[in-house]
Records
---
Amino acid sequence: MLKKERQAYILHQLNLHNKVLSSSLSTDINVSEDTIRRDLMELAAEGKAIKVHGGALSHSFSKVDLPANEVYSLNQKRRIAQKAISLISNGMFVLTSGGTTVLEMARMLPHQLKATFISGSIAAILEYINHPNIEVIIIGDKISKSSKITVGSEAIAKIRQMKPDLCFLGTNAIDLKHGITDSDWEVVQLKRAMIESSQRVIGLSIAEKINTFQPIRICEATKIDTLITELPADDPLLKPYSDAGIKIL
Amino acid sequence: MLKKERQAYILHQLNLHNKVLSSSLSTDINVSEDTIRRDLMELAAEGKAIKVHGGALSHSFSKVDLPANEVYSLNQKRRIAQKAISLISNGMFVLTSGGTTVLEMARMLPHQLKATFISGSIAAILEYINHPNIEVIIIGDKISKSSKITVGSEAIAKIRQMKPDLCFLGTNAIDLKHGITDSDWEVVQLKRAMIESSQRVIGLSIAEKINTFQPIRICEATKIDTLITELPADDPLLKPYSDAGIKIL
DNA sequence: CAAAATCCCGCACAAAAACGCACAAACAGG
DNA sequence: CCTGTTTGTGCGTTTTTGTGCGGGATTTTG
């Protein structure tokens, strides 16, 4: 049995039962537990499983452990959110993606701001609802358990028929050569649609994601109009982007 | 049973009952109390539970005890939810409305149930997401701030093009003469669509709402197939409904 | 205040993981 | 074809992790 084949089988079992045991898999496919363990580690590294002692769990179980160590980047994200908010004016239609930076922005929206926010991110929606003057439109479709946002053709079709003033995109990786990239196929599809529909796209990215890339490409970096990081606009790290015609904030 | 799995189970119980006993958990999952205690300590360290002598408390409960009458109606709703859940089988497509009873049902869904839930209620969606085996489809549209559900023509159109197996309807008022009624125009539109699309409609209503009515009519009472209250099925209050051909549970 | 329940501590032990190594099959390139 | 390299796999050995148990300390309760 080929490695890929075996891993596909493991993933299938994982989706089916939401958990797998190294021991049972080993007797099941007739390979050593060591091999299973190595497979599980690979799958975990690719984000397709969660490795635990004794086997692995499906991502849908991960709700149990949200990492609390992320406090570190919180301040950076707040700074980004602050800059992003300055771009929003009363009466605008604003489309937002998922991601923690966007979520932080949602939390910091000034009370008196009157605008309409469109999103498929459950967490962001929750924040918008609590604001007194913000209208919320949710993009419906199947919800991806891993990213907690709606994905699928319905969602994409819905986005395509809008023309929002602004689009805030939480970017996982941006690089002039590789463009804007991500690791989840469904999310990529969605973000691509968001970018194409919007009059002005604003990328939100903490500095450590600048000049990095991930397996799947969304679009060229120059498709975004404005890039916001926690750094000052004249930071040398951002110079190439500014030269490429992207506004920096 | 894996450690993470067990802890997930404990957390689920905690969210459900707002408290857990080490002793009962121990006999429940068939592990030593020591192990449970260690789990609770870990969960407490992560801030997901509050360890107390004899078990643990949910974080939300730490405040003050809910007023007695709320607890009272909570128990009624739990009883309704329990009956409602018994109607759901694996693989079903289930459409649910908003309301606290439906929300309670969402919380009580058994861990191993595999089904697809469709809803426009933000609170319900949040509960569904936390279940490992449930697929979630959200109905998108504008969100009504008062009821925290999506309303509007898009939502209605979306519902119209589905044919779910079951529809659970939190009913605010039901009466044989006036039918099922509600007070919010947009919600009424939505519920009407839900009833028409579904193969089987189950009304959830606490007894005090039986034989009451509100300003706007959704449909006749007989449009629902099954009525679930916290009362036993042979309660005289429900006799007229049963005579009208509605199944009582 | 005394009995009962619960917790805490150290220990034992089995299951699982990590590590280093061996080995064979697949591959690449003269 | 031969040969050096990479890749996937299995096998001991050592470490780590998860769990249960006994007994003494502590808390709860009537």
---
Amino acid sequence: MTLKKNVRTIRSPQPLPQAEEHRQTRRDHAVEIAEDYAEAIADLTLETGEARVVDLARRLGVTHVTVNRTIARLQRDGFVSSQPYRAIFLTEKGRRLASASKRRHELVVAFLISLGVSERVARLDAEGMEHHVSAETLAAFQAALPRTGQEGRKGQEG
Amino acid sequence: MTLKKNVRTIRSPQPLPQAEEHRQTRRDHAVEIAEDYAEAIADLTLETGEARVVDLARRLGVTHVTVNRTIARLQRDGFVSSQPYRAIFLTEKGRRLASASKRRHELVVAFLISLGVSERVARLDAEGMEHHVSAETLAAFQAALPRTGQEGRKGQEG
DNA sequence: AAAACAATGTAGCTGATGCTAAATTATTTG
DNA sequence: CAAATAATTTAGCATCAGCTACATTGTTTT
């Protein structure tokens, strides 16, 4: 503690406004992984008919052990269903998460590219950013996007 | 495994391109906290002359115990210096991180606001997004920003 | 159908990030 | 300066997310 005692008296014991922003970011992080997995499972199911542990591992850049554990958590939380030694499928809840997530992802990528960011960097940045883009900001991105074919409306040209 | 054996033969054993994006995001996450702490310490040092554990805790929305442990890690990694029971100060490395981080933060907020996002939401979203914005994307934000006084140059009007 | 191989699951480790409760140290006050 | 108060640290717990090594189960191949 410093010598100036009145400095401390000024500080409030309540949480500061900034605290809420940080808390929100931490909360977001808890669902990021669910969104990434849901998206990957949806993609794989479309591509090959099913999502398997090895494929998810390869796509997400982790070992199959990590995938296994995470899938257990996602099943616990109602996002996926799976039988031992079988493929993984999204529940209705998981499908909703995946489609919302995919839409956001594609929109962020398209928006960054429209700003002149290279596709590679756009994809890299979008992967991290997308989870923190609120509905309001997403709408602003959409509005700012030059309509070169109405992205994000019906087709996802990934 | 499915009955169609050729499906598997097609898959490559190497990591997919998407894997790198996810890996990058996870790497980013490792430095997010360092950036948040560095920024908070810089702010507090400016405001009150020193950054203390309780103040950081209040600002970041965590308990003082969490702050304590994180500060130990940041000290281990060379971002801060602190003596037991004393205030926390940024090292040169920490100051660099803080100022880069603050500049990025302010620029992202300004950019979102320029898109029509409300200030409150802009700040909430920026807190999560900023850590995933690459130099290239940041430059694109800067370029797209209407120069209403050259934000991000010298003054931070927070 | 048995052997070989691929995929999945389990055990047990590391480290980061959160917490509460209790101990310690510093500061302020009487 | 001693007591009271405030701040910091330590101890110990939980969860998430990653890993390697090994065990088990499914699939393919011979």
